[in-house]
Amino acid sequence: MVLLGVAVLVADPIAIRRTQSDIASRIEQRVPGSHATVTISSSPFLVVLAVSGTIHEIHAHVTDVADGSLTLRSVDVTVHNLKVSRTSLLHGSVKLLGLSSATITVTIGVVEMLRAAGYGALAGLETFASGLTGSVEAGSGRVQITFGRFVFTVPYSSLVPCVGSAQVRGADIILTCTTTTLPPALQSPSAKGGT
After folding, report:
1. The dihedral sign for the CA sequence 165, 168, 169, 174
2. Rounded distance, CA 19 to CA 84, Å?
3. Which of 165, 104, 167, 110 is nearest to 138 (CA)?
4. Confidence band (pLDDT; 50, 70, 90) for 78?
5. Cβ atoms 137, 151 nearer than 8 A
6. How far apart are CA 108 and CA 190, in angstroms?
7. Any idea what the Cα angle at residue 67 is, between residues 61 and 69, rounded to 5°?
8. Taking each helix axis from N to C terminus, what angle separates 45-52 and 2-30, rounded to the nearest 10 degrees?
9. Strands 150-155 and 165-169
10. pLDDT at position 140 over 50
C-alpha cells in the first residue's frame, strides 16, 4: 500500500504536466499565433481522475489571440468538472468529453477596440469610464457590443463560443460569459467539428 502511495505521488506531477501541455498545445493549434498556459487544480490528480473521471478545475490563460485587425489582450477559460477519458490517458493522449461549466473572460484594450472598429484610437475615449456596462447581443456568428454610440463586433471563436456581459475596467473592455459546452479549442482533434 505504501508503494502504491509513493507511485501515485511520483506519477501525479508527471500526469498533470502532460495533461496541461497537451491541452495548451491543442489551444495553440486551434488559435494560430496564440500562446496558452494551462493550470490544473485537482489534487491528487490521478486518484480523483481514477475515481470520478473528472478534473475538478482547469484554467487556460491565452494571449496573442488575433481576429483580423483586433488583438485580444487575453482570453481566460476556467472549466469546472472537466470530464476526461481515462482510457485515452492510459494510452498517452488526452480526450476531453465534457464539462459542468466554463467561465470565459476576454480582455480587450479600449484603444485597440476603437482602432479595430475604425473609430480612431482616441475617438470618444472619455466615454469609456471604468465601471461602464455595455449591452451584448448575439448575432449571426458574431457578438455585438454597444457602449452608447459605439458599436463593436467580435466573432464567436473556438475559445469564445458564448455571449455574456461587457464592462469597462480601467483601460480594458472585459467580456465574460458562461457555457456548459466544451469550447471547440479544447475539444479532442477527432471532435473538432462537434459541438
Report:
1. positive
2. 10
3. 165
4. very high
5. no
6. 31
7. 125
8. 80
9. unpaired
10. yes
Amino acid residing at 76: D
Grid coordinates given for 8? 501515485
Q: What is the dihedral of CA 109, 112, 114, 118, to 10 degrees?
A: -160
Backbone phi, then psi, for 112, in 5-degree steps?
Answer: -65, -40
The answer for residues whose C-beta is within 8 angstroms of residue 113's C-beta and 6 or more apart is 70, 152, 173
In the numeric block, which cell numbers belong to residue 171? Answer: 483601460
CB 181 within 8 A of CB 195: yes
Q: 123 or 66: which carries more pLDDT confidence?
A: 66
What is the mean pLDDT of the segment spanning 143-152? 89
pLDDT at residue 124 tops 80: no
**Residue 142: how many other CB atoms lie within 10 Å:** 14
Taking a C-beta distance cutoff of 8 angstroms, is the pair 158, 141 a contact?
Answer: no
Place of cell 489534487: 43
Residues 6+ apart with CB under 8 A from 61: 36, 37, 38, 39, 74, 75, 76
Interatomic CA distance for residues 56 and 53, integer angstroms:
10
Cell 472619455 maps to which residue?
A: 126
How does DSSP assign 172-186, residue by residue?
Answer: EEEEEEEESS--GGG
The answer to whether 175 and 108 are in contact (CB under 8 A) is: yes
Indicate the residue type of 105.
T
Please list, in sequence order, all residues whose beta carbon lies within 8 angstroms of the beta carbon of residue 11, skipping any fewer than 6 positions away.
46
